[in-house]
Amino acid sequence: MQGDARRRRNENYFEDIPRSKLERQMAQTGDWGEPSITLRPPNEATASTPVQYWQHHPEKLIFQSCDYKAFYLGSMLIKELRGTESTQDACAKMRVSLNFHFNSMYFS
């Protein structure tokens, strides 16, 4: 029973998903059409995922590639580049993180 409900939910899953401009164009021109591959929604894939929808069409995820840009300073992700301010924020976070790990290792 539960599998049937999940299957019915997944059949209509890609109809209401906000897609990128390129994906909308490709779907309109018939390059992809309806997905031939069914993916579980990301929130069903793991318990800790708050994302409700995949950003890309299943065929794009499997057969093509998705380009993303991320900026890091050390191991800290810079979400928004704001000149020296974002660098100072990342350094402050690293100091706090380093102090926490050092103190917990030292006093444990």
Automatic annotation (TrEMBL):
Gene3D superfamilies: Pleckstrin-homology domain (PH domain)/Phosphotyrosine-binding domain (PTB) (2.30.29.30). Residues 1-44 are annotated as: Disordered. The keyword Repeat applies. It comes from the Eukaryota. The keyword Repeat applies. GO terms for biological process: ephrin receptor signaling pathway. Transmembrane segments: none annotated. One of its GO terms (molecular function) is ephrin receptor binding. Keywords: ANK repeat, Repeat. GO terms for cellular component: cytosol. InterPro entries: ANKS1/Caskin, PH-like_dom_sf. Residues 10-24 have a biased composition (Basic and acidic residues). SUPFAM superfamilies: PH domain-like. PANTHER family: ANKYRIN REPEAT AND STERILE ALPHA MOTIF DOMAIN-CONTAINING PROTEIN 1, ANKYRIN REPEAT AND STERILE ALPHA MOTIF DOMAIN-CONTAINING PROTEIN 1B. This is Ankyrin repeat and sterile alpha motif domain containing 1B. It comes from Equus asinus asinus. The gene is ANKS1B.
